[in-house]
Design brief:
The chain has a single domain (5-120), classed as STM4215-like, CATH 3.30.2000.30. Strands 1-2-3-5-4 form a five-stranded mixed sheet. The longest helix has 15 residues, at 74-88. Strand 4 (93-102) and strand 5 (109-120) form a beta hairpin. 26% of the residues are buried. The mean pLDDT is 96. The radius of gyration is 15 Å and the shape is elongated. The chain is built from three helices and five strands. It is of the alpha+beta class. It has helices at 5-10, 13-19, 74-88, and strands at residues 26-27, 40-50, 60-71, 93-102, 109-120.
């Protein structure tokens, strides 16, 4: 019922090397605890819908996700974003690059992108 982003990213040695494994610093609901080690990434569902049919119940749900990477160094932010992209693309579609920015309060670098994920029921 939900996109398997964590499972897919946990299976990537490149993502694990950058975001750790115990715990992996990839957090749902677009929120990480204050003081989380850097770099880290957050994700959230920003939309989606079931694949509706006239004669049958849906057998697929489409989820739109936003993924944001935060790091103290611009190169680290970009490296994590690329590793996440490479892990996700065999399973889902990157639909938008949302840009790069620097958070005004924390001064962390941020890379953001959107994903469209089709999940079989």
């Amino acid at each position: 019922m939900f996109p398997p982003i964590f499972t897919v990213c946990r299976a990537s040695p490149e993502v694990v090397a950058l975001l750790g494994s115990a715990p992996m610093r990839l957090y749902p609901f677009a929120e990480a605890e204050q003081g989380t080690a850097r770099p880290y990434a957050v994700w959230q569902i920003i939309g989606g819908s079931p694949e509706n049919y006239i004669t049958n119940v849906p057998d697929v749900d489409r989820f739109g996700l936003q993924v944001d990477v935060y790091a103290a160094d611009v190169d680290d932010a970009r490296e994590v974003a690329a590793a996440l992209r490479d892990a996700i693309e065999p399973h889902a579609h990157i639909t938008a690059w949302r840009g790069e920015s620097r958070e005004p309060d924390t001064r962390l670098y941020r890379v953001s992108f959107d994903v469209s994920w089709f999940v079989q029921r």
